[in-house]
Amino acid sequence: MNTEVWDRIAGRDRTVDVDVIPDTVVYAPGGPTEADLRLFGDVADKRVLDLGTGAGANAIALARQGAHVIALDRSVAQLARARKLAAATEVRVEWHECDVADLAFLRADSIDLALATGVIGEVEDIDRVLRQVHRVLRPGAAFVFSHDHPMALAVGREGEAPGALPLGALEVRRSYFDNQPVDVTHDGERIQIWARTMAEVFASLHRAGYRVELLLEPEPAGSGDPGPDLPRVVVWRARKEGV
To answer: Which of 19, 46, 141, 235 fits a 20 to 30 Å CA distance from 205?
Structure first.
């Protein structure tokens, strides 16, 4: 379902604007960035896996820093745009059209860093993804990922209307513990997100053999839905342990 939506979004803009590509990884629209959080350090000469790369901005930013980047996405249109952006910026990225859990093409213990910004929320079977990423990571290597904060998915603004500035009081729209998918708006399209509590994500990481090092809830930089009162994104850093 979401793949078709991302294809439509990519198809709207056929221009190749290298100025829109940041010099650092962006964890969510409008921030925060890796320059802000400093979660994985120098990536020069490292093998980095970018899951759900979309139009490739993060993959290209990492390649600019000297990483050997392997980027994958299910959207053909997004990958086509990513390839054009990479060519325009004269960097080399290894692109793959596949699901984020289809990592059989990678050897075990071959990746120095895995990154996923946003896409984890679009995955129903998070356990499968975590197991596959764990397999390809080198022992002790980090998986850094971000997704919509579950509180941001549970609340909204009173009297909120499409296109209007949300000025009303915050109100609970759905239970924080409701694990059914919820639709969010991105570029005027509806994207299906699987809402999970923090405890559910933590438990999934533990089952897959990771040690959670950091869990960050960055304060929003400005106004917007649901506003500065709640975090919009959560960022995790977990390291491979176990077998």
So the answer is: 46
